[in-house]
Design goal:
The structure holds two protein chains of two kinds. Chain A has helices at 2-13, 16-42, 51-57, 63-74, 83-100, 106-125, 142-167, 172-187, 190-204, 213-239, 242-250, 255-270, 272-285, 297-305, 314-347. By secondary structure, chain A is mainly α. Chain A has a single domain, classed as Orthogonal Bundle (MetI-like fold), CATH 1.10.3720. In chain A, helix 5 (83-100) runs antiparallel to helix 6, helix 8 crosses helix 10 and helix 9 (190-204) crosses helix 10. The mean pLDDT of chain A is 88. Chain B contains twelve helices and eight strands. Chain B is globular. Chain B starts with 9 loop residues before the first helix and ends with a helix. The chains are: A mainly alpha, B alpha+beta. Chains A and B meet through helix 1, helix 2, helix 8, helix 9 and helix 13 of A and helix 1, helix 3, helix 4, helix 11 and helix 12 of B.
């Protein structure tokens, strides 16, 4: 106990500079923390209340969240039907958790996702007996954000694997096409790719074909993230020893058998940390679809703050949304770390 | 090369595969091009870059070039490019400083500072940049007081709803700028001279004279000018500020948001770089009786730089690309002006091609610059 105390004292007051730093930090805590707690908790307005009550109380107006949480979470989806996106959300989370638990084989997982995605689309879109039709421009909030993130990641996987293999290919034409695509996409901002998709996809398709704004954004996100994912997978490919593909060749496997059955699975294992970082980035970047007019979680919150009565409580609104993003990102990074440990244990 | 064995011959297979890939790409491109031509005709959209010389007839909130509504679309794009570059350069400088402070703080032995820095990094990295920009913009435009009640941060510097107002010199800005350039050049020249002397004689290459030169020359120029001319001080009135210079809340929010966001990533990069240098290095330095500061500057940092520069370059690239989020809070950067032009002329393809070309050039330049710098710092250990 005393040893620990001595160590702590050294860590806080070990030198003159350190002591000054500690005193300054303590002063900052003492002067900043109480007002913050006062604002966020003591003077705050909880539960149902009007903006006038909030203003009178002076603290944080959590009543704004109470008033608008359905708008923030589900966007402009018809109010009475919002059990549908909620159910879709639950289904998606369930699928993610089931996949992440690694208890099921690849076939089961793929079949589960096929059925699950179909169910989610039917639930959200409706147009079948018992479910009224809801066009995609009314979809919004957290389900939309999750849909873009999961759809973008899933869609970019096959493209990224092809690009990563292409970049390492000995065929000059295949290699240069892959390099050109990857470097061009990585050199421009996602906003410009979103703009390109929203302005140019209609021009590039036959006149009669109408592409939904949601699909256009999804295409942009998929293409964008596939370039980054390809680089992450290429890093993983480089970590697979040459003996693996040589061994496969000695067994008479073809290029595709070698790549898809031997090399790529090992490469993906090596690339887990990089892929997790990319997925966190992608999850946050889905917020940019708000710029091309899709009501994702962030834009829904911004629209909720557009209500003149509640406009001044932007801090509360953004804090609520930030908390949701932090929770998801935290889950992804924790999961990737545990997956890494688990695979390393199984490997040895 | 003889193509003998048909499909079992790898050389034959390679040619067939590549021909197939090429044919596939050609078919896709042709399909898109045919549709594009048909669509452009059907919607009677003009093509070509002629629009760049037409009058733009829209206003831009902030411009470093002479611009009014009679200027051309081309000029408008240049104004946007300049606005983007200003944010990118200032953002890189500010985020490096802030990231350096947070990175050092997260390695501090002080038990209060290090956890705080770590908490900052974890929180900021996991919240979307766009959300942070919206938040800063809301704070700067809604929660700040109006001009008449604006707090005076420093003498002559106010922060209000209308923006950051500060005092400027009536004249002589050129002299201060000259002092700044002279300071940078002198500091650089001294650095080269002292390094060469260190190589020849073993005398220590000192850091502080460089810092003194860097600060003292512009400061001297500033004092000289300030003594001879008047300041134009912003004066709060009931309807806003009169006089002085100002930075719009859009630019302030963008700079603050971008810098603080990227600072969290840069702090992590620096921390990882410094931690990568083995403990034996600092122990050896201590046994040579180098001080802690000397150890850091002469032993740890040069070795850490090799690991730091490549991811740092990547982060700068991200920052430069992320300036395009300016469009969301109404700062007139390249992307948002391009968007306005598309809405006015309908010539989406040309404008997007220009935008992508410019961003690609910017990214490639930053990468080339950082590669050059990396080659320099990577040689330090070898020399």
């Amino acid at each position: 106990m005393t040893a620990a105390m001595a160590k702590l004292r050294h860590r806080l007051f070990g030198s003159v500079g350190n002591t000054l730093l500690t005193v300054f930090m303590l002063y900052a805590f003492v002067s900043l923390l109480p007002p913050l707690v006062r604002w966020a908790a003591i003077d705050a307005t909880w539960g149902a209340a009007t903006p006038e009550i909030c203003r009178a109380n002076g603290g944080a107006c959590w009543a704004f969240i109470h008033e608008k949480y359905r708008l923030i979470l589900f966007g402009r989806y018809p109010y009475a039907e919002q059990w549908r996106p909620l159910l879709a959300l639950a289904l998606a989370v369930l699928l993610v958790l089931a996949t992440a638990s690694l208890r099921f084989g690849l076939r089961t997982v793929l079949a589960g996702w096929a059925v699950g995605v179909a169910a989610i689309i039917v639930l959200m879109r409706g147009g079948v007996p018992g479910l009224s039709f809801v066009p995609t421009d009314l979809w919004g909030g957290l389900p939309l954000t999750l849909m873009l993130a999961l759809g973008g990641m899933a869609g970019s996987f096959p493209i990224a694997i092809a690009l990563a293999l292409g970049r390492r290919s000995r065929l000059p034409i295949v290699k240069s096409i892959s390099v050109a695509f990857i470097e061009m996409v990585r050199g421009v901002p996602l906003v410009s790719v979103l703009f390109m998709a929203s302005f140019m996809i209609p021009l590039f398709l036959p006149g009669k074909v109408q592409v939904d704004a949601l699909v256009r954004a999804l295409v942009a996100i998929t293409l964008f993230s596939s370039a980054y994912l390809a680089e992450a997978i290429r890093g993983g490919l480089q970590a697979v020893p040459a003996g693996q593909s040589e061994g496969a060749a000695a067994l008479g496997l073809t290029y595709w058998q070698t790549s898809l059955l031997i090399v790529v699975p090992q490469a993906l294992r090596h690339a887990i940390p990089a892929m997790a970082n990319l997925f966190i980035g992608l999850f946050k970047d889905t917020s940019l679809v708000g710029i091309v007019g899709l009501t994702d979680l962030l834009l829904a919150a911004k629209q909720a703050l557009g209500d003149p009565q509640w406009r001044q409580f932007s801090l509360e609104g953004y804090a609520f949304v930030a908390l949701i993003y932090v929770a998801f990102c935290f889950f992804i990074s924790r999961y990737s770390r545990s997956l890494e440990h688990r695979l390393r244990r199984e490997h040895h | 090369m003889k193509l003998s064995g048909g499909w079992s011959d790898p050389a034959f297979r390679a040619i067939v595969t590549q021909a197939a890939v090429l044919a596939f790409v050609a078919v896709v491109v042709a399909f898109l091009a045919v549709n594009l031509i048909g669509n452009l005709e059907e919607r009677s959209i003009r093509t070509g870059f002629g629009f760049l010389w037409q009058a733009a007839s829209f206003e831009i909130g902030q411009s470093f070039l002479p611009y009014d509504a009679r200027a051309t679309f081309g000029t408008a794009l240049l104004v946007g490019l300049l606005n983007t570059l200003v944010v990118a350069v200032l953002g890189i400088v500010l985020s490096t400083i802030a990231g350096g402070v947070v990175g050092i703080a997260s390695l501090s032995r002080n038990r209060l500072v290090a956890p705080l820095a770590t908490a900052y990094v974890e929180l900021v990295r996991n919240v979307p940049l766009l959300l942070q920009l919206y938040l800063w913009y809301a704070i700067l435009t809604q929660l700040l007081p109006a001009a008449s009640e604006a707090p005076q941060l420093l003498p002559g510097i106010y922060l209000a709803k209308s923006g950051l107002h500060f005092l400027i010199l009536e004249s002589g800005g050129g002299i201060v700028l000259a002092g700044l350039v002279l300071g940078i050049l002198a500091s650089f020249a001294y650095g080269r001279w002292s390094r060469r002397r260190a190589d020849l004689t073993g005398a220590n290459a000192l850091l502080w004279p460089r810092l003194v030169l860097l600060v003292a020359l512009p400061a001297a120029a500033l004092v000289l000018v300030a003594a001879t001319t008047d300041f134009n001080v912003p004066r709060p009135t009931r309807f806003g500020f009169s006089g002085g210079g100002m930075v719009t809340p859009e630019l302030t929010a963008l700079l603050v948001g971008l810098s603080l966001y990227n600072a969290a990533f840069i702090a992590e990069i620096l921390r990882a770089g410094i931690l990568s240098v083995g403990k034996a290095q600092s122990e050896a330095a201590a046994s040579l009786s180098l001080s802690r500061a000397q150890t850091l500057r002469l032993v740890i940092v040069p070795q850490a730089m090799k690991l730091v520069v490549p991811p740092l370059a990547n982060q700068y690239l991200n920052l430069a690309k992320n300036t395009s989020l300016a469009i969301a809070i109404g700062y007139p950067d390249l992307m948002s002006i391009g968007n306005t032009i598309i809405n006015q002329t309908g010539q989406a393809i040309e404008v997007i091609a220009i935008l992508m070309g410019v961003y690609l050039t910017m990214s490639l330049s930053i990468s080339a610059l950082m590669n050059w710098y990396n080659a320099r710092v990577a040689l330090v250990g070898v020399r």
